[in-house]
Amino acid sequence: MRIAAALLATGAFAAGALTAATSASADQNGSAVATLGNVLHGQTVNIPHEGQGAAGTVALKEDGQSLEVYCIDLYHGTRSGVKYQETGWDQSVLSDNPDRGKIQWILEHSYPVLSASDLAKEAGVGNLSQDEAAAATQIAIWHFSDKTDATSKDSTTTAVANWLEQNATNVSEPAPSLALSPASVAGQSGDKLGPITVTTNAKSVDLKFTAPSGVQLVDGNGQAVTSAGNNDKLYVKVPAGADAGTAQLSASTTTSLPVGRAFKALKGNSQTMILAGTAPVQVNAAATAQWAPKGPVPAANATEDCKQGGLDVTVTNGGDQPWTAQIGDKSVTVAPGASETVLVPVKEGDTYNVTVTGPNGFSKSFTGALKCQPTGGGGTPSATPSDTATASASASSSVSAAATPSPSATGGLAETGASSSTPIIAGVGAALVVIGGGVVLFLRKQRGSHAG
């Protein structure tokens, strides 16, 4: 039977997603982008239900820096041109995984956080190459992320993977690189709107505040601020009697993205990755504030809810009169000074676009994809020639995004149903970023006439 090659792990990372007054991604309010690099280190291993594939690390390139990721969603497929963003564990395939803390321990005690030689000493083995270290780490991660035991013919790789699995203990989730929460606040003129809480692993972040004259960004003591640190609370101070208006807050810093942060596709049912190796990169976050001297003053925020299967949309009224929010096909009346949360059901893997409308032309949309559950063994990876062709053709301004596996990782490209000149990853537009994840080349037996 013919062997088909399918790209299983592709992604991009964004330390949150830019929040605008009219459109936002649920849960996230910062942004950073990266492009796909080459397979860095790994080995060909046997994967239950699927055959052979490459286990190891892949480079993420951002601002000249090279980061590394592993796969935590083995049996899901992906397509080129998919854009990814950083997300919390509770909004990812780790949401219902009791062993997710053990994956974090593995990342903190294995390659590339530890060098191959240091990992060899910890695991009590002799010489350990980077390829063996990366493959062993990926195998151990899959043991907990997908309940799958991939196997290597390399005895050293197997020994290290077993050591990681046996010694892993639960470790807490790392904090976001940068976030502002909530991303939208509202109140009356004369009020101090907020708080907006800064969460970051950086020592400090720079703040840029754009607002009408007289409106200030202040701390809890009412002092004007231009920078902030982790857990700092910010407020928008609006003069009494000020006309209705809006202020924009942006935060930025250079920081190393925390190892263990999950990254999932903004659209579509594509494979989820986790950050393994890091370097300083530029990250950004944004929030807005609305006010008026009287009447209703609406705000809306959203969070993906993996437990209930949908999007929790929270609408707030910072004014002195009630307002009725239209949330998709549902409506809810919000009393002055109150908040209401509505669950908008979303099917697993589906893309959503939920718009909230209200008085005085208020409108805000939340977009994304609900990706909470990993596919069990025997899932169908998908990276068809038509997918890559579509991504390439839609790019009005393309860049080269080569996915060139190292010989040690894959042993060369397998035969596909398409011409050998058809790349698995094509050039994509600058607005579409492509990222590699743990398993890059996935080999599986053809099922019926399906070549992917």
TrEMBL record:
Keywords: Cell wall, Membrane, Peptidoglycan-anchor, Secreted, Signal, Transmembrane, Transmembrane helix. Residues 397-410 have a biased composition (Low complexity). Residues 1-26 form the signal peptide. Residues 413-452 form the Gram-positive cocci surface proteins LPxTG domain. This is Cys-Gln thioester bond-forming surface protein. Pfam families: PLipase_C_C, TED. InterPro entries: LPXTG_anchor, PLipase_C_C, Thioester_dom, TQXA_dom. The chain crosses the membrane at residues 424-443. The keyword Membrane applies. Residues 397-418 are annotated as: Disordered. It comes from Streptacidiphilus alkalitolerans. Gene3D superfamilies: 1.10.150.480.
